[in-house]
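Recap from last week: sequence in, structure out.
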Amino acid sequence: MTYPSIRDETAHADIVRRLGHLGPDSVRLWGVMDPGQLLPHLVDGVRLALRDEGPAGRGLLATSVMRRLMIHRAAWPPGKAKAPPGAFQRTMRSWDGDRQELFELLDRYRATPPERIRAGHPVFGRMKPGDWDVLVWRHLDHHLRQFGA
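Predicted structure tokens:
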């Protein structure tokens, strides 16, 4: 299976629509994240792609074959992956404010030329812009499905 890019207009519009269906009382279908952790986690994920600094990961998932498989091909089963340390450090300010920030970051990401997207990911190592484009969409999709949206 191949996955869409967040730069694709239809894929982006679908993510925005689904984010509109979430609320602070949304019930998770798997995992341990609660709605109060969801939006800050998603905001941090998009911010990560827009930052210049930070080390690129090393290890099995940072190899080109594994990165390509995990980002572009492999299914992400519900509740199987564990977030890296530090993935839930930021707390929610307000539901509407954090959701608006996420919308703005997605617009900023899509407006950023691909060559200006961060090269390194803390788990997947050195990434190409197309890897980030798909990873941003997949991360959002994964957590939206986690909360039934």
